[in-house]
Amino acid sequence: MNKIKWGIIGCGDVTEIKSGPAFNKVPNSSLVAVMRRDAAKAEDYAIRHNVPKWYSNANELINDPEVNAVYIATPPSSHFEYAIAAMKAGKPVYVEKPMCLNAEEAVIMSTFSKEKNVKLVVAHYRRGHAIFQKIKQLIDEKAIGEIRFATMEFLRKPLTIDKTNIWRVDPKISGGGLFHDLAPHQLDLMYYFFGETKQINGFGANQAGLYAADDIVTGNILFDSGVVFNGTWCFSVAEGLEKDHCEMIGSEGKLSFSIFEGNTITITKAGKETVLEFDLLQHVQQPMIEMVVNYFLDEANNPCSGDDGIVVMKMLDVFTGK
């Protein structure tokens, strides 16, 4: 294999800009087929994005001899089924977050990948962004001394629910609510920054009663390194109170940044603030997709393994009391 020829299962909104176009923009990679159960929408996507083939059946895409790697971008309830099917066919998998519905499924997926010797990567793609790689560097270099603790607040006004997004707050389809949709990125970054965990606890609740899933979650992590993390997610605050803020307090200073909305890191040390600014990405998954392609071509290590995905799924499960 000298070029990755991708097939996308689930060519919905997330693939329009965030990921889909990037498969044709990174070296040694091309998008050759897409699938969606709605055949008309699959065809429309293929025409608009100049994709040669489209399907309305996932198994047909998986068994297309030209497709040699599969990107799964469906709602989480079908990640497990499609990942196992693709790996059974011997095709490496890049699966969207959350990896699946729960940690139990994640363990099976990762174990199957190892047993079949078929590669599996989880799309915790913020690991590939220059801003978060810089934060990792600052932590490792002890730019603010030894990290004592990290705090994160993520607050959103209630979701306006319609037929296009109701699945996001249906636990049977998404695994939970908006916490399961967004927190995997945030929690994976904490794992990326601080390493293995020693203790995890938390709880979730449904305060506003707008849908079946939790709309508030809080959690704590004690990492093996001694760093303590505390996070709060609330999806029912008043308009104007939205927040996306993370702080890391060290023995000599502080790092402040946003996970989703910002492109700056503020370093506070010895009474002085330094702001580092980073370019915004057109396709937020492109750096990760390039790393995945290199991994699939045996030119790099796995940028986010199935075992990494298990760690994050366990965090989600514990935080919400599963």
Q: Would you kindly provide a written description of the structure presented here, covering whatever features stand out?
A:
This protein has helices at 13-16, 39-48, 58-62, 79-88, 103-116, 130-140, 171-174, 178-194, 286-296, 306-319; strands at 4-9, 29-35, 53-55, 69-72, 93-95, 120-122, 147-155, 197-205, 216-223, 228-234, 243-250, 253-257, 264-269, 272-277. It is α/β, with parallel strands linked by helices. The protein folds into two domains: 4-124 and 284-303, Rossmann fold; 130-280, Dihydrodipicolinate Reductase, domain 2 (2-Layer Sandwich), CATH 3.30.360. Helix 4 (79-88) runs parallel beside helix 5 (103-116). It starts with a strand and ends with a helix.
